[in-house]
Design a protein that fits this description.
The longest helix is centred in the middle third of the chain and has 13 residues. Strand 1 and strand 2 form a beta hairpin. The protein is globular. By secondary structure, the chain is mostly beta strands. Helices cover about 10% and strands about 35% of the residues. Strands 1, 2, 3, 4, 5, 6 and 7 form a 7-stranded mixed β-sheet that branches.
């Protein structure tokens, strides 16, 4: 069965455009990621992406700009089918540069602490699981090596 997911390119506009990313504290092998996760039964993708951003980063002030595309790609470990809708979101310019957030609730990430920060675009290094592959669909100047392969 296909797992339905969402992923968020949360962009903050300052002197340069910046992307919100996070790392798992104490789990460096997970790599740098963008907020992403499953869509609950009956939940609209736009609701799911805002919920995932809030759960994984604590940010409640982001706004959905638009969906970017739908990627059909198996999970990197289990190889099970998954369908991820990528979204462009905006964060206020006044959002902090970096912070730690501990995930609450009863989901798979509950209790994990994420080190959140903004990185200038274009990125210098790819994200985990090629999550940066579609940044060029938001702005062609942000295309990455992952996106160039598509």
């Amino acid at each position: 069965m296909t797992r339905f997911r969402v992923a968020a390119y949360v962009i903050r506009q300052r002197s340069v455009s910046e992307l919100l990313v996070f790392d798992h504290v104490g789990l460096p092998q997970a790599g740098t990621q963008v907020p992403a996760g499953g869509v609950r039964p009956g939940e609209e993708p736009e609701q799911a992406v805002l919920r995932e951003v809030a759960e994984e980063t604590g940010l409640l002030t982001t706004a959905v700009i638009r969906p970017i595309l739908v990627e059909n790609k198996p999970h990197p470990d289990t190889r099970r089918p998954r369908r991820t809708t990528y979204f462009h979101l905006q964060a206020p310019a006044a959002t902090a540069d970096a912070w730690h957030h501990t995930v609450g609730g009863g989901g798979d990430d509950a209790g994990l602490t994420f080190a959140c920060r903004f990185l200038p675009l274009p990125l210098e290094r790819p994200l985990a699981d090629d999550q940066d592959a579609w940044l060029g669909h938001v702005d062609p100047r942000w295309r990455t090596s992952s996106g160039d392969r598509r």
